[in-house]
TrEMBL record:
Composition bias, Low complexity: 11-20, 25-39
Keyword Nucleotide-binding: yes
Subcellular location, record wording: Cell membrane
Keyword list, A-Z: ATP-binding, Membrane, Nucleotide-binding, Transmembrane, Transmembrane helix
UniProt topology in membrane: Multi-pass membrane protein
Biased composition (Pro residues): 1-10
Main location: membrane
Classification via InterPro entries: AAA+_ATPase, ABC1_TM_dom, ABC1_TM_sf, ABC_transporter-like_ATP-bd, ABC_transporter-like_CS, P-loop_NTPase, Type_1_exporter
Keyword ATP-binding in record: yes
Domain ABC transmembrane type-1: 63-348
Species the sequence originates in: Deinococcus taklimakanensis
Name of the featured protein: ABC transporter ATP-binding protein
Stretch list, region Disordered: 1-20, 25-44
Amino acid sequence: MPDPARPGPAPTAAAPAGSLQAALDAVPPNAGAPGGRAPSPRRDPRQLRRLLAYARPYRHLFVLGLLATLVSSGLNLFFPLLFGRLVDASFLRVGSADTGPLDRTVLFLLGIFALSSLFGAAQSYLLARVGAGVVADLRGALFGHLLSLSPRFFGEHRTGDLTSRLTADVGTVQAVTSTALAQLAAQTVSLVGAVLLLVSTSPRLSLLTLAVIPLVIGTAVTIGRQIRVVSRQVQDAVAGASASAEEAISGVRVVQSFTAERAEAARYGAGVQASFRAALLRARWQALMGGVMSFLTFGALALVLWFGGRQVMAGDLTPGKLVTFLIYALQVGGTVAGLTGIFNQFQEALGASGRIFELLDERSDLPEPARPAPLTRAQGRVTFEHVTFGYGAEKEEAAPALQDVNVDVPAGQIVALVGPSGAGKTTLVGLIPRFWDVTGGTLRVDGQDVRAYALRDLRAQVGLVPQETLLFSGSVRDNILYGRPGAAPAEVEAAARAANAHEFISAFPQGYDTVVGERGVKLSGGQRQRVAIARAILKDPRILILDEATSALDNESEALVQAALDRLMQGRTTFVIAHRLSTIQGAHRILVMDAGRIVQDGTHAELMARGGLYRDLYELQFRAQEQAARA
């Protein structure tokens, strides 16, 4: 079972100050857990019932698989008896020409073998189908639920831990929802049947065998517990080494630019050595387990053969019955060992299901209205009324991120937000699509509180073009279609043309089917940004948020992107966050923010004439540009 404290994937590079992603990352990880660690999952047996509810749609297949398992287990109980008869038919009829009993026994044995194999194959397929279906449904439900949670939740949980629960933990419970329950029933039938047949075959030998079995099982449980502890250490060490490798690979350019290859190799090597030492310790315990169990098993077999042989010599037992007894004894030992393994599977599944249900029980801090107000096509008016907002509890913050913000933005107006880093610009626009809810005051869209709209309807009216563009690892076409799935190819091309992207896309050998790579790594910064703009154009939002959309581009790319943005902003309510004040002089309105408040409001000319923070920032940038030009 994956450990909640196990290191997750290496952190990615920090988002630029003032970007929307930086605001999303503002909440400290694991803020809700003591010491920053995720709480240990509880092993509540009631979780098993909840887990099995996911198998309900496949109950008919499960029942058939269970029946096939029981039939196969029942047929296996005939094997030792028939083997014994086969031995007696061979050895007790030495010199006889009548092979009828031997032939009939072999035919009957082959028939039992065939039936057992048939039911065993049916059981294997049916239960595998149930397990695969349950895992697929559970992963789908968990992933869908995760996507419904707010950015605050993702700020408090590590991505590596979430993906571990989505993959490894869900995989761990697969055995319980499919084969483990059936095997529990089958092993119980085999154990009870084998013990009864064991006693009926030879009561005296049964006492000797049953006295040895607890010693074998006790040894297996004791050493097995140590192996599980050391196996956890191996998994943790491997996870630590993997985290180091992932961090170095994801930041390979930084590593190479600082010539830190040897340092990173040494760091990874230390993790590998730790996992190697833990693996050696596990190998020692496994070797001890194998040796001890082998000695006890074959030692017990030798004692049974010795005592049974004396009974055969005394005429109290036939050779066939001795063989039958030995096989039943091995079945009993194997069944008890199998039940121990099933118990361990249930324990692991309970721990894993605890981590899964912790996520499924999470509730978004952005509640949906019981009766959402209709919002088919917004006009785009945005009004902040005495809005206050803080990322954490008030007692944990010296001051909220936003304080008593009042501003009314008419539909179709272009509003620029400027101010020093940490002024609250990104936080302010992040409230519009309800990435967070205001902690005081009211935010309205078209005169209605945003909390009165369904989240899906509200966010359908808002388009976002951030500084750090995220493209998905599909084709260019797939990424543009993300704005409006199902759009016609002509609409995709029209959006790309409006974003000044069609020319470079057409230059690729595969055109719009070109794969962009993970996070769009195969495209330049300007190309990624224009694809993101095409995506926003295809979405056709009424409210547009541009968060430093051109600040990281060279002059040529910036000119192309800016031209595309100008087309995109036409007829839409637009909020532009920009540090380069020269790019926002044409805005209808400029809001100057400082320490979570709007301290100035006006056009570029009005603010320059009025003086204050805006003119100070503008003159500071202007002087810096002049000095750079002279240099």
